[in-house]
């Protein structure tokens, strides 16, 4: 992966952000991923305007267990197609994690993020610099830094291919 | 070194020796989707295969319609039609349409689930099938589509937790309360990515309905799957539905005595009290006594967690003890998990009595697990429910929900305020 | 010169003799509203009157979307609950097991009574004519005004007399009669009129069958539709009348009608109303074999115990070939059907039995159609998009024809199954 540094504003969320808060069950019948961003965080108290105000390149930053709850892939699509380049969280729930990887969508496990959010070491609107390949995050607003976990090989390969479907296509082409 | 249940299941499915942390490709026994997520799977599959793809084995793909059945909106109707048309085109015969009920339960009742099976579904509570020792897991549409190519998908071999329970529930207390205790003790991520094995007399003597309740909420602790080795009546029930093969499957997946667990916990349920997950998180657990008297507007009994015959019968017993009358200030809604459940309730004469008491009974579906079906709460209303999630706004913007056992829920319906069922039963 | 039913009943309410085309102002005995009580309450508040004129005359019955299937419906219901509390309205049927489709509940609970003036903020309010009431649907603004003033004005309608003789042949029902009539005189054939049903054929019918006829009066443009308040009606209301103001009123033999029609029941065959108008009549032979994707047995038109019995009789021991949604008209009907084992028959046949309410009739929930799908339905309207998508198709038919079609997945003649 190339050593790109991403820059953008932080949208900060708490622990256990469930899939209804990210993308409410009211809109489950939607089948077009590109139409999903308009519903992002509509039910998250205080973040109801996220969909209107989010800018391409902004980051979603959260505590533990981000994406717990439903298996809906809508909750990944709505952020991906909002132009959020990566979701940073202390940890992700397993289905959310899989869904992100399977779409080639970067999600980074970041140590200490839950406590940092509670301690206001990272706040809404803070300017962040993220080096995805190195897993390094810098809060430009206050100078604090964070480190992400390394990604396992299989997940790395799937990500590199652009997602699970693309990965399987590559594998099939190789074996043909 | 011995193997845990999940390790044995994954070894069978992958044909490889595995250890915790490995990523392996497994053969899938069932790759299923619902009316929710199903159309997304179909459309994605058609797009990536340019409408030329065939699923690897039409006999191993199933569709269940439960989230919004019968369709409540045009888009839902279209999604259901998309699935029906695809099934026809692919020769997939296992389509359980709007007349069947909650998907996992329908698959189980139709004898399609065996211990050791690896099952995917677009339902985060798919893993309740761990109640019969199968490794079922909820996934998104991409995972389903990927599995339709060759019948395989990747998994990380998880660590395994061992949870033992001993003792007998006192009157008014049940498996749901034990489960709520677990959620409160372990927290929303207390089983993070792990497989969980349940043991002990409390589990071994429990009904299938109780095991389903227990395993359905592993998701709410971010676990991968909760597994129980079928025994006794459950094994007999399963054999009668799924065939004699289940006996060898049970032997094949039983954990070794020297299996390695990352954490072991033991509980005694003898002194357990009715518990509630209070607004707005499943792990915000209190004793029902502590919140007793709080006003409520609606009570809902149902869902994949607590919508089986035994659950409804437990609620019925509470209603009976209260001379068959629910509070007129509360709307009480019962949704059976499946058509089979509904029929059993009717045959047992329970539906008549519920209706006489003022309760309403809906067709089998996921019902109030989505804010687009029966019983959405208006802002400011407070509900009691036997479902599995009470995140803020989940069943209506600005509403709040207490999660409880069917007994506690019915006791609350009777009094019109949150009520400990022992106040009525004992 | 004799008087029609409408002239007599409106004259009585006005307190003086009236004739067709006079305009009268009367006090309604009951004002029924369903889920639309919430927007009406908002309009009512704009009028500036604090209290409704007579809380006991208002009846609210939630049925259009119950239990609430969305945030919007849930909030709507809550506003009604608050208005009920604030105004002290005693007759409120919430999402509880005493409710059901509003018109069915109005009849079962003893609100529909001979000789009463009844208005409802629903077009099928004309159903209560089966009980000899003068009942008609009105708009929301008019309803708000009625709540405020206790007054409503009517032009005394001219009347259409339909005389019915003979007996139904096997497999033919009251639904086939009303679809035939509407097919003959078209959707505007009784515009503004009071439709009176006369004759031995009506006398022989159950009150339930008469409800099916009167219910669909609006589909030919009628202001109201009415049957004679005979012994069957008096027996049906015995002990449960919610008002003592009722009186069995009927037209004089020498009343003057603008139009008279007669039908012999023996001439009728099973039929449907084809998409997309109710007057698009087709005898069963003309549509037999048309593919359907859903069957709906429900609505205020045809979901009473008699209708369920008829359908169950056909379905017993068989499996449906298409998804079949059964929605009893009320919880009372539901319980009776359960007692008689009918619900068991439906479940064994593979039907969905949903909770009483309007269900998918006007596209709210519980069985919306996808584009290209066709539904055979016992309801009263088959307008384009009525049950959801505009590219879907609705065929209206009797419970027997719906059940026969559910078994084959194609529009089928019930006489061939019976």
Q: Assign the CATH topology of chain A.
A: Aconitase, domain 4
**What is the CA-based Rg of chain A, rounded?**
16 Å
Q: How many structural units, i.e. domains of chain A?
A: 1
CATH superfamily of chain A: Aconitase, domain 4
Fraction in helix of chain C: 25-40%
Q: Which structural class matches the secondary elements of chain A?
A: alpha/beta
The most extensive interface between chains reads:
B-C, 50 and 47 residues
Q: Segments of chain C where pLDDT lies below 50 for 5+ residues?
A: none
Strand content bin of chain C: 15-25%
Order of helical and strand elements of chain A: EHHEHEHEHEEEHH
Strand segment count of chain A: 7
Structure overview:
The complex is a heterotrimer of chains A (176), B (426) and C (418). Chain A has 176 residues and is α/β, with parallel strands linked by helices. Chain A has one domain: Aconitase, domain 4 (Alpha-Beta Barrel). Chain A has 7 helices and 7 strands. A 7-stranded mixed beta sheet of chain A has the order 4-3-2-1-5-6-7. The radius of gyration of chain A is 16 Å and the shape is globular. With 426 residues, chain B is of the alpha/beta class. Chain B has 2 domains: 5-267, Aconitase, domain 3 (2-Layer Sandwich), CATH 3.30.499; 277-425, Aconitase, domain 3. Chain B is globular, with a radius of gyration of 21 Å. Chain B starts with a helix and ends with a helix. The model of chain B has no long low-confidence stretch (mean pLDDT 96). By secondary structure, chain C is of the alpha/beta class. Chain C has 2 domains: 5-244 and 254-263, Aconitase, domain 3 (2-Layer Sandwich), CATH 3.30.499.10; 270-417, Aconitase, domain 3 (2-Layer Sandwich), CATH 3.30.499.10. Chain C is built from 15 helices and 18 strands. Chain C has helices at residues 5-14, 37-47, 71-87, 102-108, 140-149, 174-185, 200-203, 207-215, 231-237, 284-287, 305-315, 331-339, 342-349, 399-408, 414-417; strands at residues 23-26, 30-33, 58-61, 91-93, 117-120, 134-137, 152-155, 159-165, 194-198, 224-226, 259-264, 271-273, 281-283, 294-297, 323-326, 352-353, 374-377, 393-396. In chain C, strand 14 (294-297), helix 11 and strand 15 form a beta-alpha-beta unit. In chain C, helix 11 packs across helix 13 (342-349) and helix 11 runs parallel beside helix 14. In chain C, 62% of the residues are buried. The chains are: A alpha/beta (176), B alpha/beta (426), C alpha/beta (418).
């Amino acid at each position: 992966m190339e050593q790109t540094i991403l820059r953008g504003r932080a949208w900060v969320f708490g622990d256990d952000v469930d899939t209804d808060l990210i993308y409410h069950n009211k809109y489950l019948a939607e089948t077009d991923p590109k139409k999903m961003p308009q519903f992002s965080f509509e039910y998250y108290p205080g973040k109801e305007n996220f969909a209107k105000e989010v800018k391409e390149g902004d980051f979603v930053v959260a505590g533990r267990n981000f994406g717990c709850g439903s298996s809906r892939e809508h909750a990944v699509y709505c952020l991906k197609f909002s132009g959020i380049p990566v979701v940073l969280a202390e940890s992700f729930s397993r289905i959310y994690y899989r869904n992100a990887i399977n779409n080639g969508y970067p999600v980074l496990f970041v140590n200490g993020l839950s406590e940092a959010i509670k301690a206001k070491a990272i706040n809404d609107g803070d300017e962040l610099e993220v080096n995805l390949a190195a897993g390094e995050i810098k809060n430009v607003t206050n100078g604090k830094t964070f480190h992400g976990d390394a990604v396992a090989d299989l997940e790395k390969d799937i990500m590199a291919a652009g997602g699970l479907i693309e990965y399987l296509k590559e594998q099939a082409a190789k074996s043909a | 070194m011995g193997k845990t249940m999940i390790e044995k299941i994954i070894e069978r499915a992958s044909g490889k020796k595995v250890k915790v942390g490995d990523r392996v490709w497994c053969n899938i026994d069932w790759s299923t989707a619902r009316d929710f997520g199903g159309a997304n799977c179909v459309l994605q599959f058609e797009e990536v295969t340019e409408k030329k793809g065939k699923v690897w084995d039409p006999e191993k793909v199933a569709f269940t319609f439960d989230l919004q059945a019968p369709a409540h909106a045009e888009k839902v109707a279209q999604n259901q039609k998309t699935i029906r048309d695809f099934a026809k085109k692919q020769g997939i015969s296992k389509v359980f349409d709007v007349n069947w009920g909650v998907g996992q339960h329908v698959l189980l009742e139709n004898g399609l689930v065996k211990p050791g099976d690896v099952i995917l579904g677009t339902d985060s509570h798919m893993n309740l099938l761990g109640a019969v020792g199968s490794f079922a897991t909820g996934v998104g549409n991409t995972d389903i589509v990927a599995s339709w190519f060759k019948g395989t998908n990747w998994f990380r071999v998880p660590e395994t937790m061992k949870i033992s329970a001993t003792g007998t529930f006192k009157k008014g207390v049940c498996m749901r309360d034990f489960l709520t205790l677990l959620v409160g003790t372990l927290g929303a991520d207390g089983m993070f990515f792990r497989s969980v094995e349940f043991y002990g007399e409390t589990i071994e003597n429990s009904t299938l309905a109780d095991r389903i309740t227990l395993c359905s909420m592993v998701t709410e602790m971010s676990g991968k799957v909760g597994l129980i080795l079928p025994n006794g009546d459950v094994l007999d029930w399963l054999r009668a539905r799924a065939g004699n093969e289940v006996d060898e499957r049970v032997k094949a997946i039983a954990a070794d005595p020297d299996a390695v667990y990352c954490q072991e916990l033991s509980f005694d349920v003898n002194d357990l009290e009715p518990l509630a997950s209070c607004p707005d998180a499943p792990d915000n657990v209190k004793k029902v006594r502590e919140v007793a008297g709080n006003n409520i507007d609606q009570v809902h009994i149902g869902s994949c967690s607590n919508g089986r015959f035994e659950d409804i019968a437990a609620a019925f017993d509470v209603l009976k003890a209260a001379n068959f009358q629910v509070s007129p200030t509360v709307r009480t809604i019962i949704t059976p998990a499946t058509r089979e459940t509904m029929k059993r309730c009717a045959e047992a004469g329970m539906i008549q009595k519920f209706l006489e008491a003022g309760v309403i009974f809906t067709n089998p579906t996921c019902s109030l697990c989505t804010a687009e079906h029966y019983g959405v709460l208006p802002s400011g209303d407070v509900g009691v429910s036997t479902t599995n999630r009470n995140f803020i706004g989940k069943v209506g913007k600005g509403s709040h929900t207490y999660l409880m056992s069917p007994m506690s829920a019915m006791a609350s319906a009777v009094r019109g305020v949150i009520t400990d069922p022992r106040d009525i039963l004992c | 010169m004799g008087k029609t039913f409408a002239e007599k009943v409106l004259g009585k309410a006005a307190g003086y003799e009236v004739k067709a085309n006079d305009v009268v102002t009367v006090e309604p005995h009951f004002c029924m509203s369903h889920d639309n009580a919430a927007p009406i309450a908002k309009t009512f508040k704009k009028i500036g009157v604090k209290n409704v004129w007579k809380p006991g005359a208002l009846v609210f019955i939630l049925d259009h979307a119950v239990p609430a299937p969305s945030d919007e419906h849930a909030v709507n219901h809550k506003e009604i609950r608050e208005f009920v509390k604030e105004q002290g309205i005693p007759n409120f049927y919430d999402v509880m097991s005493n409710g059901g489709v509003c018109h069915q509940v109005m009849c079962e609970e003893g609100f529909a009574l001979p000789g009463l003036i009844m208005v409802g903020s629903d077009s099928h309010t004309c159903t209560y004519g089966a009980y000899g009431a003068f009942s008609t649907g009105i708009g929301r603004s008019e309803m708000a005004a009625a709540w405020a003033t206790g007054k409503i004005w009517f032009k005394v309608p001219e009347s259409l007399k339909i005389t019915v003789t003979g007996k139904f042949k096997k497999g033919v029902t009251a639904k086939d009669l009303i679809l035939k009539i509407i097919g003959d005189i078209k959707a505007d054939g009784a515009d503004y009129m009071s439709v009176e049903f006369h004759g031995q054929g009506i006398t022989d019918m159950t009150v339930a069958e008469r409800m099916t006829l009167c219910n669909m009066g609006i589909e030919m443009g009628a202001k109201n539709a009415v049957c004679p308040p005979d012994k069957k009606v008096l027996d049906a209301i015995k002990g449960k009348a919610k008002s003592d103001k009722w009186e069995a009123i009927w037209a004089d033999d020498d009343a003057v009608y603008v139009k008279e029609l007669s039908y012999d029941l023996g001439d009728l065959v099973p039929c449907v109303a084809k998409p997309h108008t109710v007057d698009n009549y087709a005898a069963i032979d003309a549509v037999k074999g048309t593919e359907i994707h859903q069957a709906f047995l429900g609505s205020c038109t045809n979901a009473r115990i008699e209708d369920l019995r008829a359908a169950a009789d056909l379905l017993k021991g068989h499996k449906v070939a298409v998804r079949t949604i059964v929605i009893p008209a009320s919880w009372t009907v539901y319980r009776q059907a359960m007692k008689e084992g009918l619900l068991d028959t439906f479940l064994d046949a593979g039907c969905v039995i949903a909770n009483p309410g309007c269900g998918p009739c006007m596209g709210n929930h519980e069985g919306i159609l996808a584009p290209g799908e066709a539904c055979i339905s016992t309801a009263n309207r088959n307008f384009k998009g009525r049950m959801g998508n505009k590219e879907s198709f609705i065929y209206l038919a009797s419970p027997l024809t719906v059940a026969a079609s559910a078994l084959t997945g194609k529009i089928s003649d019930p006489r061939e199954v019976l």
